[in-house]
């Protein structure tokens, strides 16, 4: 089954997608992570997108759509996937609909206050997909990933100025997709305000039903 995880920066898309990937055995495809790996490895793609990502802007649709097209063509994506961070614009949503349409869009609803709080204390693993928060979800050992033991770091785009830009990009370019998916009948609103464990507990029930063919 094909799920899109949708929501503001800090809504919990990445955290929930990591849980759902382990639970349902579907590949977690995060455009943000693919871009960050490319920047880390200084590939041609990484060099092209570094400045715009660190400033909190959006990568162009051309680059992003091509990247997703290649990723979803890999063999592991044939049974389904969990998309995290794509689509983020209307042209991206239309491209996905033409390429391999989503079954469901999990829309993680969170207040602005919660988004700011989560992003301002976020720490990410330098090696795997796990993320933490200095007060809301601290790792067992400060500065070290529970899952893989690698050092944690602050993403360049989690600094204040970039966070402001990401929220503007979200409101102007990404939030309108809610109407698009509501019209397609694939939107599944989920309350994302609580802590990670309780949001996941509720989401797991919802996703299990959807996987069994029930309607939301
Ligand atoms: P978050 O959801 O916390 O903002 P992501 O890891 O999903 O973070 O994305 C980080 C950055 O990567 C975005 O701010 C943007 O610059 C770029 N990016 C990721 N996905 C897309 C996309 N679908 N279209 C354009 N840019 C993207
Ligand atoms: Zn890790």
Key descriptive features of the protein:
globular, three-stranded antiparallel sheet, alpha/beta, five-stranded parallel sheet, single chain, 8 strands, 9 helices, binds adenosine-5'-diphosphate, binds zinc ion, Rossmann fold, about 220 residues
Please write out the topology.
Blueprint: E1 2-6, H1 13-24, E2 28-30, H2 31-40, H3 44-54, H4 61-72, E3 81-84, H5 90-99, E4 104-109, H6 112-120, E5 122-125, E6 131-133, E7 152-153, H7 160-174, H8 177-184, E8 187-191, H9 196-211
Helix pairs in contact: 1-9, 2-3, 4-5
The structure holds adenosine-5'-diphosphate and zinc ion.
What does this structure look like?
This protein has 216 residues and is an alpha/beta fold. It has a single domain (2-211), classed as P-loop containing nucleotide triphosphate hydrolases (Rossmann fold). It contains 9 helices and 8 strands. The chain has helices at 13-24, 31-40, 44-54, 61-72, 90-99, 112-120, 160-174, 177-184, 196-211; strands at residues 2-6, 28-30, 81-84, 104-109, 122-125, 131-133, 152-153, 187-191. It has a 5-stranded parallel sheet with strand order 2-3-1-4-8. α1 (13-24) packs across α9, α2 crosses α3 (44-54) and α4 runs parallel beside α5 (90-99). It is globular and about 40 Å long. The mean pLDDT is 96. The structure holds adenosine-5'-diphosphate (ADP) and zinc ion (ZN). The site of zinc ion (ZN) has 8 residues, from loops. Residues 125, 127-128, 130, 145, 147-148, 150 line the site of zinc ion (ZN).
């Amino acid at each position: 089954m094909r799920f899109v995880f949708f929501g503001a920066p800090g809504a919990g898309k990445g955290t929930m997608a990591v849980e759902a990937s382990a639970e349902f055995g579907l590949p977690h495809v995060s455009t943000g992570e693919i871009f960050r790996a490319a920047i880390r490895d200084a590939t041609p793609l990484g060099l092209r997108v570094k400045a715009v990502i660190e400033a909190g802007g959006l990568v162009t649709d051309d680059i992003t759509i091509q990247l997703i097209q290649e990723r979803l063509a890999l063999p592991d994506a044939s049974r389904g996937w969990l998309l995290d961070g794509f689509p983020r614009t209307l042209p991206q949503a239309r491209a996905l609909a033409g390429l391999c349409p989503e079954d469901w869009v999990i829309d993680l609803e969170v207040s602005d206050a919660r988004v700011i709080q989560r992003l301002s204390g976020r720490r990410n693993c330098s090696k795997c997909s796990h993320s933490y928060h200095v007060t809301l979800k601290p790792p067992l050992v400060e500065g070290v990933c529970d899952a893989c033991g690698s050092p944690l770091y602050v993403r360049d785009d989690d600094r204040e100025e970039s966070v402001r830009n990401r929220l503007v990009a979200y409101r102007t370019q990404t939030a309108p997709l809610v109407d698009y998916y509501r019209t397609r009948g694939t939107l599944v609103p989920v309350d994302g305000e609580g802590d990670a464990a309780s949001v996941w507990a509720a989401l797991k029930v919802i996703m299990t039903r959807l996987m069994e063919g029930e309607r939301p």
